[in-house]
C-alpha cells in the first residue's frame, strides 16, 4: 500500500495533528543506503520527522534537517518538501548497536546526546529560515519536540518510530505530530498529555494494522477528529546527470581537463539516493566546452 500522511484538527481547532505511515519510504531509504538496523532507525526517524515538518509547508517550499550528534551514526541529513517527498542519508549506514536497556533499537546510542539539530526552510524568499536547537535526547522524536517548542514556539508532541525486522528490512515506520494552538484551554492540554502517556509506538500500531487515521483518533482520545487532507508520501530524489554535470562545469575547464587526463572519465554518486552517474571522456569534453562558454 502507498504511504500517506493525514492532517487533522481536533478540540475545536485548538489541536493540529499529523500522522504518517512511511513504511515503504523508509524501506526504500534502507535499500538504497544498505543501512543496518540502528542506522535504519536513526535515518528513518529523521525522515519521518522531515515528512511531518514538510507537511506544514506549502507545496513548493522545502526544508533540510541536519542532526549532528557525537554518536557513531555521524551526521544525518534529510530533505523534504510540502508535496510529501523526502530523501536523506546517514554518514555511517553500517551501524548495528546492541539493543538498549528496554530492548529497543538504541537510536540515542547511535546519534549521541550532544550536538545540534538544525532545520533550514526554503520558503521561496530571499533568505532561508534557519533554526537550531541542541540535541536533548538523541532519540530524535524528543529532539523534534524540543526544536518546535524552542525554535518555533509551538508546543508539540512528536513521535517517530521504525520497526526493523530480523533480516534488516523495514517492517513498519511512521510517526505523529500533535501541536497545541494558542488559546487552547488547560483541560485540552491536560487531556492530550494524559492521552500521550499511554501511547504505544506508532510502528507497533501500524504493525497491528491500524491506519494513520485510527492512530490519530487513539492518540487524541476522541472520535471527533476533522481530517483535512490526505497526502501520499514517498522517497524521491531530484538528482540527474544534468545536475551533477552543472556541478562539474562549475569546477572550471582546467579541473575538467585534469579529470580527462588522469581518469578518462568521471563518476558522480548522489549522497541522498546513491544513484551513480557516469561521464565518459566525450561527456567531459562537452562539459569543458560549456565551462569555457563555447556552448
Ligand atoms: Zn539523488
Fold and architecture overview:
Redox regulated molecular chaperone. Protects both thermally unfolding and oxidatively damaged proteins from irreversible aggregation. Plays an important role in the bacterial defense system toward oxidative stress. InterPro entries: Heat_shock_Hsp33, Heat_shock_Hsp33_C, Heat_shock_Hsp33_N. It is built from ten helices and 13 strands. The mean pLDDT is about 95. The chain has helices at about 25-35, 35-55, 105-110, 140-150, 185-195, 200-205, 210-220, 240-250, 255-265, 280-290, and strands spanning about 5-10, 15-20, 60-70, 75-80, 85-90, 115-120, 130-135, 155-165, 170-180, 225-230, 235, 265-270, 275-280. By secondary structure, the chain is of the alpha+beta class. The chain folds into two domains: about 5-235, 3-Layer(bab) Sandwich (Hsp33 domain); about 240-290, CBS domain Like (Alpha-Beta Complex).
Instruction: Estimate the mean pLDDT confidence.
Output: 95
* CATH topological fold name of the largest domain: Hsp33 domain
Query: Tell me about the biggest sheet?
Result: 6 strands, mixed
Based on CA inertia axes, which overall geometry fits?
Answer: elongated
Could you give the order of strands across the largest sheet? 7-6-3-4-5-11
What is the CATH H-level superfamily of the largest domain?
A: Hsp33 domain
- Give the topology string: H per helix, E per strand: EEHHEEEHEEHEEHHHEEHHEEH
